Amino acid sequence: MLEIKDLCVKLAEEEKQILKGVDLTIGDGQVHAIMGPNGSGKSTLSYVLSGKGGYTVTGGSARLDGDDLLGMDPEDRAAAGLFLAFQYPVEIPGVGNMTFLRTAVNSQRKNRGEAELSAAEFLKVIRKKAKTLKIDAEMLKRPVNVGFSGGEKKRNEILQMAMLEPKMCVLDETDSGLDVDAMKLVSEGVNALRNGKRSFLVITHYQRLLDHIKPDVVHIMAAGRIVKTGGPDLALEVEKNGYADILKEVA
Amino acid sequence: MALAKIKQDATAERLAGLTLPEGAGWASAARKDAVARLRQSGLPGRRDEYWKYTDPASLAQAGAIPAAPFPTEESIVFGQIDRLKIVFRDGVFDAAASDDLAMDGIEIERLCEAVQKDIHWAQEYFGVLEMRGQTPVERPLAALNTGFASDGVVIRVTGKPTRPVSLIYLHDNETSDAILHHVIRVEEGAALTLLENGPAAARLNKVLEVDVAARGAFRHIRAQGRDPERRAVTHIFGRIERDSLFKSFTLTANGAMTRNDVVLEITGDNAVAHVAGAALGDGDFHHDDTVFITHDAIGGESRQVFKKVLRNGATGVFQGKILVKDGAQKTDGYQISQALLLDGDSQFLAKPELEIYADDVACSHGSTSGEIDDDALFYLRSRGVPEATAQDLLTRAFLAEVIDEIDDPVIADDLLERLGAWLQRRG
């Protein structure tokens, strides 16, 4: 599904290397988690994969089902099946959530040469999916993320994911700012999307989220590299001992 | 102070090319007065404070710069709305293309016919509101208009007509130089919605005088024509009395040069005046909104909301003033002007002014100019929305607030849908 090889990235505006050779391969239907201390490059990895400006790739590659992601515009990456759930979802005053979602769904369909969904078809699908995430009609009508609570914003991210049906989902600290109940709701939303074809990369600081979204593989990232890879137990180890021991071990 | 020689010469040259219309009837006196005012002030020049950001030369000079009519397949602005149509073609009333002017609750006459009647209500207003609007700032192009306007309508609203009155300005002749003058009186408790659309001429000089009596309501929505080369200077002079409502909204897209002056006087207590505008400029586009609202009564509310989207070197100007006179207590004045600059070549010049002589008022103003928000753009693109579509969505969102100023949702939707199409046709 996703194959990242020796990915090196620096800030576009300054000579600061953030990713220093990331290698990561995620198979179809797998859930991988990346943990790591602040400033290790986790969020940068998610932004570079989705095509955010401000970064320069200085080496390596990232392929989604063989296609070179790094050469594509953000919208083409999305149409190819990549989705990033933002750590800080952006507020867009003046654009209704529903209009936004329908434009996104139909833009992707058009990009892939598929027929666009009619307003009625779209409404039917979104109502059903919104309901399971406890997103009411009012939230769909409001401008994108404007006045949403932290939990509502994250639920809205998962709703977008459910509507867009990507094959590779990157979740950037989706647990940040969530209370226990909201985390459960969001995790259920994610778990409902898990299947043998769809893969996930879950970026988090805390093991807690991984109790809900059970990963197949856990990576530890530090100073721009993946320094250790293991099973779900690795997350428990971090939770218990912190990163210091692991970093010492690999140093 | 004597007028500078250069201004005297320019004014003389302009006047030489104009003749007072024949059969001016009772309007003769007002027209002669207006010409005298113009001689005294002279035509505006670039060095006049009020024209600091807009070069008036092409609006003031003796001949109009030719402008080719813009062929378009688009549906007509307000075409879906049931309205009473009054058509002017290159500044001349077109009876054949217009509807029957009779409607319940309203009297509509052509200016040239109204002036022939011995006694006429419009005599009290023609050139009068324009003259009042000459202080404290001179508006010579409006005086020129009163002096030499060649056509127009006078409208007296006595009830609540069921349909809006729609003034349609067609432009066929590429050298047309039109001067139009309309007078509107909304009587006590009466209400009118006035629509205006179309490019009108290669060059248009238009004055609209509007007097709204107590408890009257005047709603005005205009869409200025899309001809990329057309030029226009327009003035609205309004006086609104107790408990009345005045709302004016203007959408401008394209046009080489547009100067829209709105001069309002709130003379009765608890009256409400809202003036709003959306402008979309691409390339050779200079657009100037100049607004002057005077509060001369208690409890008045005024609101100015202007937004402009500029690209490819387009220029937007906003000069907005709120003057609160001594004694106009409990005035609530608000003013905002914002520009979205889609590239580094475009510019927005704003001059907000508050002048307040009453001590119990609430007045606020703000002005911003900026680019499309990168984070919002990336968020949309990361969801698969192509860059151009994402920009259009964000641009429409920017303008949506000002379209919201229109009360009638059907009219607002007509303009909003148009914005979508106009934004998509870039370049």
List the helices and strands and how they pair.
The complex is a heterodimer of chains A (251) and B (427).
Chain A: E1 2-11, E2 17-26, E3 31-35, H1 42-50, E4 55-64, E5 67-68, H2 74-79, E6 82-85, E7 92-96, H3 97-111, H4 119-132, H5 137-141, E8 143-144, H6 150-164, E9 168-172, H7 180-193, E10 199-203, H8 208-212, E11 217-222, E12 225-230, H9 233-241, H10 244-250
Parallel strand pairs in A: 3-10, 3-11, 6-9, 9-10
Antiparallel strand pairs in A: 1-2, 1-4, 4-5, 7-8, 11-12
Chain B: H1 5-16, H2 27-41, H3 57-60, E1 84-89, E2 92-93, E3 106-110, H4 111-114, H5 128-132, H6 140-148, E4 153-157, E5 165-170, E6 177-186, E7 191-198, E8 203-212, E9 217-224, E10 231-240, E11 245-253, E12 257-266, E13 272-282, E14 286-295, E15 301-311, E16 315-324, E17 332-341, E18 347-356, E19 362-370, H7 374-382, H8 387-403, H9 409-424
Parallel strand pairs in B: 1-5, 4-6, 5-7, 6-8, 7-9, 8-10, 9-11, 10-12, 11-13, 12-14, 13-15, 14-16, 15-17, 16-18, 17-19
Antiparallel strand pairs in B: 1-2, 3-4
Q: Your description of this structure?
A:
The complex is a heterodimer of chains A (251) and B (427). With 251 residues, chain A is α/β, with parallel strands linked by helices. In chain A, β4 (55-64) and β5 (67-68) form a beta hairpin. Chain A contains ten helices and twelve strands. Chain B has one domain (5-424). Chain B has nine helices and 19 strands. Chain B has helices spanning 5-16, 27-41, 57-60, 111-114, 128-132, 140-148, 374-382, 387-403, 409-424; strands spanning 84-89, 92-93, 106-110, 153-157, 165-170, 177-186, 191-198, 203-212, 217-224, 231-240, 245-253, 257-266, 272-282, 286-295, 301-311, 315-324, 332-341, 347-356, 362-370. In chain B, α7 (374-382) packs across α8 (387-403). Chain B is globular. The mean pLDDT of chain B is 94. Classes of the chains: A alpha/beta (251), B alpha/beta (427). The interface between A and B is medium-sized, with 32 and 22 residues.
